[in-house]
Amino acid sequence: MINIFANKDDYKVLIVDDIPKNIMVLGNNLMNQNYQIAYCRSGQEAIELTQKNDFDLILMDVMMPEMDGYETCKRILSYPKTSKIPIIFITAKNDYESIVKGFDVGAKDYVTKPFNSKELFARVKTHLELKRSTEELEALNKNLEDIVEERTRLLRNANQKLTQLDKSKSSFLGIISHEIRTPLNGIFGSVEMLKDIHEDEETTDIMQIISESADRLYSFFELSSLITELNIDHYQLETDKTNLSDIINMILKEKKVNTERNIDIVFEQEKEEFIIDVEIKLIRKIINDIIDNSIKFSDEKVNIHIAISQKDDFTILKIHDNGIGFPNSILVDTLKAFQSDIENYYEGKGLNLAAAKLIMDAHNGHIDIYNLEDGGAGVCLKFKKNQNKKL
Q1: pLDDT (tens digit, 9 = 90+) per residue, 106-149?
Q2: What domain range is 107 assigned to?
Q3: Which of the two ends of the chain, N or C, has the fewest CB atoms closer than 10 A to its terminal CB?
Q4: Residue 164 contacts residue 173 (beta carbons within 8 Å)
Q5: Could you give the CA distance from residue 4 to residue 2 in angstroms, rounded to a whole number?
Q6: pTM higher than the cut 0.90
């Protein structure tokens, strides 16, 4: 028995045949092809040898005493270590049943005696290269699986950290909410008490400034809290079907009562009802903020045009004004309009636009901003049918 493998890069072939002459012929020819050869003369010896060595291919005779090639093949392939070794039968049995039986027990190929050396070597080369390619593919797949597993682990860890951060943000938001509301309520109460005690004009003016400042701070706090909740997906929408026209009419009625400025608001609609499924409080906030900005950033004479229309699956609300319009830096990159960082912040617009974008996203809607050709700003809100989504 030859069992010496000097070069680990060469293919290793095991010859199993009980006739020494056959082994000699095969062995000499294969060694001339730079294959490393080992041989044995029985099935049992072949099984033992394959468990101790790593062979790339086995050439096996079918007719052997005690254990024939079929049984030897079945047993070798039954072990995990040797289950993928390609086995080629070399035998004088060339009837159909013998050939089919060889493939049934797991052989990869079948060469009949007397064999043609070139044909045999071609088949040996094919199965060896196929085995090597299969091993390389399996190694690549294993490497990819390891990479995917590692990436999945990293993503899982990152997701856990994000979840923990979200919980921390929620807890922090609750604490801040309590800590800000309590002193603000104290300020409001104290201002009302002082108004009753001191009725002179100077004190009343000071109390008015304090009250307006507290109102502004409270509004800012409410807005920033809303943006935070929407950003971390903790806001739970409470939607109802409502008529968009009713929301606008209610807002316009409040504007006529509360404002002293010269304001002309025109409201046009294609029909009386435009039913949308939204959280009314949030949509009122968006529309109210847009109108307030139109008033705030317009000249003494304020012209606002509001129109509702229906197109395909969208209810479209457009609000146009004759104000100063949006800064060009915002219109160049519209996304900046919906960011609340210092660089892109415009008093009265930055946070309101950020909140409006998040609210429309929560309702699976859209918001667009633009300047009008004749001057002024435009805002377009698009509400899709069945637009609400869970956060």
Answers
A1: 999 988 888 788 888 888 999 998 988 888 888 888 888 889 88
A2: 12-115
A3: N
A4: no
A5: 6
A6: no
